[in-house]
């Protein structure tokens, strides 16, 4: 295969899925929209959770995109050959449409067909869910993979879970730890996944040893994950088959580019080379000589540019704190490279040039202003920290002289105090300490520092634990209630504004309902009140919600309201709230409107494009 660029890889992926009738949706922002429960968008599926839970997506049921993602869980790992805080995830989704057969066949076609990536199939290996007490072995996926390999004359032996690779091993069975995805929270959609791996060193001959070992030694690199959401995890811990099936796939752009360009290292691809070249130029240091620092500066500043572009500003809390930490770590690593003047905006400029064509938001001029301000602030912090250190050393060394205990010349807790109160990094403390000629044990000092840090982090982790729980899955009941309310509201709108009103899209989370509908004028106060009254009446009437399956034609004839006129499949579900609403929908809904037991309120009504209005509503 010819050398491929990142832009080509991204574009090919999107073109491929467009040719398979997917709608290409834009990347959602890094700050999850209307979801205060998580810090950042961490996967392509993340912004789609409401739709994976059964809500209808306005663009249809087959989607694909390239999604900006930030994961900071691995921040300390950055500097090795593959961990990144910012990355792009290519993904395709079926929302109740196609399932395993198409997903796997398309993955195969995209990877191996000469028109697309044209990868050598003999270098591809896959993993499939082995089965456990909750769900059976994914035989269907095994069979589909075997058919693909058979087409090109490759024997596809199965390597059972826990076994070592044999001569013909091609499909590795792994347990839930590796091949099960989700749910995002405690409960919700989940299912087995199948992952595709690339053999980075075929010259070493047949695979040998366990799958895990080959991944650890980077012989096999994961490139793509197809998740088949077919189960719902219930609050009692059981897994139930869902009536609708979703596909969620994710391919890391940076990693895939790495293996496709035959590199062992993501930082040596064109997605990092220009940034590293700039850092070399500013510092006068060669990448080869200080790889780790260079990688951290490059990764962190790239992530910072994207976070700033999505409206985050450095601060001491939550998202702003993560951004501040990334920027400060980059400056600190710059210091190790001998850069002590402002430099981060200059590096950021390269990132902006690289990505501006794909993600124009990174071109915002406020990004470099913000970076420089933050850099100046941090440099002042460092200066203050250094002054404080001088005072400590002086004072401590006098104390020490008069002390009996000459084995300990410095109160180690100063290191943590400085870090805590001045943001002064431990590494810098150690460097300064070296210059003083004082006696100390670096090992003990670091140990004490880490103990303090751990105590502190445990506290903040408890506080932030709630932040990371999947918002929707945790507010499942509220979400379901708002689903039913959306039906009631549409019926109320049609009754009040006329039968030309149809749904144009919706977005529900545990806190509120956002609903778009066709209508050309601003609603009056009376009209809004009439819709509210209609919904609230239905809630107080405690009406049982009925569900019937029928063909699309039968549903239409029965007078059910249908939201979109494309593909519902053979049979559709019709949810009826007798006397109030009848609508085609995948669910879920409450069993009785009385469960809602709250008051429905329209908070906002505004235009959302030509002939479309948008309502934001809540249950109070
Ligand atoms: N959600 C899955 C992942 O992140 C597939 O997109 O790997």
Task: Write out key terms for the chains shown.
ten-stranded mixed beta sheet, four-stranded antiparallel beta sheet, BirA Bifunctional Protein, domain 2, binds serine, 17 strands, alpha+beta, 4 domains, 19 helices
Describe the structure.
It is a single chain. α3 packs parallel to α4 (139-151). 41% of the residues are buried. The strands form three sheets. Strands 1, 2, 3, 4, 5, 6, 7, 8, 9 and 10 form a ten-stranded mixed sheet that branches. The chain has a four-stranded antiparallel sheet with strand order 11-12-17-16, covered by helices on one side. It is globular and about 85 Å long. The chain has 620 residues and is an alpha+beta fold. The model is unreliable at 400-408, 461-474 and 564-569 (pLDDT under 50). It has four domains: 6-26 and 91-262, BirA Bifunctional Protein, domain 2 (2-Layer Sandwich), CATH 3.30.930; 272-386, no CATH class; 401-467, no CATH class; 476-619, Threonyl-trna Synthetase, Chain A, domain 2 (Threonyl-tRNA Synthetase, Chain A, domain 2, 2-Layer Sandwich). It has helices spanning 6-19, 49-52, 100-112, 139-151, 176-179, 211-216, 253-260, 273-283, 291-309, 318-336, 344-355, 366-402, 413-422, 426-436, 442-468, 471-474, 476-497, 525-540, 552-557; strands at 23-24, 62-70, 86-95, 124-129, 157-159, 169-174, 180-181, 188-199, 220-233, 239-252, 503-508, 513-518, 546-551, 571-577, 581-584, 600-607, 612-619. The structure holds serine. The site of serine has 10 residues, from β9 and β10.
């Amino acid at each position: 295969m010819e050398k491929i660029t990142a832009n080509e890889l991204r574009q090919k992926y999107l073109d491929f899925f467009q040719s398979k009738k997917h709608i290409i949706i834009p990347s959602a922002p890094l700050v999850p929209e209307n979801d205060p429960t998580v810090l950042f968008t961490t996967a392509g599926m993340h912004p789609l959770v409401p739709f994976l839970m059964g809500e209808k997506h306005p663009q249809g049921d087959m989607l694909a995109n390239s999604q900006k993602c930030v994961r900071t869980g691995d921040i300390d790992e950055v500097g090795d050959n593959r961990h990144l805080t910012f990355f792009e995830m290519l993904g395709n989704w079926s929302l109740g449409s196609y399932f395993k057969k198409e997903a796997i066949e398309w993955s195969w076609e995209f990877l191996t067909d000469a028109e697309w990536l044209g990868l050598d199939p003999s270098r591809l290996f896959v993993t499939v869910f082995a089965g456990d007490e909750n769900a059976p072995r994914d035989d269907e996926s095994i069979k589909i993979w075997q058919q693909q390999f058979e087409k090109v004359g490759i024997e596809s032996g199965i390597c059972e879970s826990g076994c070592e690779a044999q001569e013909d091993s091609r499909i590795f069975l792994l347990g839930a730890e590796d091949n099960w995805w989700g749910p995002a929270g405690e409960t919700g959609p989940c299912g087995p996944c199948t992952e595709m791996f690339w053999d980075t060193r075929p010259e070493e001959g047949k695979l040998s040893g366990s799958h895990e070992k080959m991944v650890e030694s980077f012989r096999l690199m994961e490139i793509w994950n197809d998740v088949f959401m077919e189960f719902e995890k219930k609050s009692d811990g059981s897994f139930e088959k869902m009536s609708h099936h979703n596909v969620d796939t994710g391919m890391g752009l940076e990693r895939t580019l790495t293996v496709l360009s035959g590199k062992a290292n993501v930082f040596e691809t064109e997605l990092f080379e220009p940034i590293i070249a700039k850092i070399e130029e500013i510092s006068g240091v060669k990448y080869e000589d200080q790889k780790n620092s260079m990688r951290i500066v490059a990764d962190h500043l790239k992530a910072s540019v994207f976070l700033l572009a999505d409206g985050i500003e450095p601060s001491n809390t939550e998202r702003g704190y993560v951004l501040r930490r990334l920027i400060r770590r980059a400056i600190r690593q710059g210091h190790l490279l001998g850069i002590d003047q402002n430099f981060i905006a200059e590096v950021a400029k390269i990132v902006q040039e690289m990505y501006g064509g794909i993600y124009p938001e990174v071109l915002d001029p406020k990004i470099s202003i913000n970076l420089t301000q933050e850099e100046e602030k941090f440099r002042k912090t460092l200066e203050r920290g250094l002054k404080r250190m001088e005072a400590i050393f002086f004072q401590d060394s006098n104390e020490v002289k008069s002390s009996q205990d000459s084995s300990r010349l410095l109160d180690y807790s100063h290191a943590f105090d400085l870090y805590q109160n001045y943001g002064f990094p431990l590494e810098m403390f150690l460097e300064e300490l070296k210059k003083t000629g004082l006696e100390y044990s670096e090992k003990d000092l670091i140990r004490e520092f880490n103990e303090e840090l751990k105590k502190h982090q445990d506290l903040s982790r408890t506080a932030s634990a709630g932040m990371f729980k999947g918002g929707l899955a945790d507010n499942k009941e509220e979400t379901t209630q708002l689903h039913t309310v959306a039906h009631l509201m549409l019926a109320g709108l049609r009754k009040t504004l006329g039968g030309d009103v149809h749904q144009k899209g919706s977005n529900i989370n545990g806190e509120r309902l956002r609903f778009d509908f066709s209508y050309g004028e601003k609603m009056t106060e009376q009209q809004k009140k009439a819709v509210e009254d209609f919904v609230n009446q239905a809630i107080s009437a405690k009406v049982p919600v009925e569900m019937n399956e029928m063909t699309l034609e039968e549903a239409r004839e029965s007078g059910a309201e249908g939201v979109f006129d494309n593909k519902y499949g053979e049979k559709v579900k019709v949810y009826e709230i007798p006397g109030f609403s009848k609508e085609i929908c995948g669910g879920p809904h409450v069993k009785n409107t009385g469960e809602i037991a709250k008051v429905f309120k329209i908070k906002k009504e505004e235009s959302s494009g030509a002939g479309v209005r948008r309502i934001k509503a809540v249950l109070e």
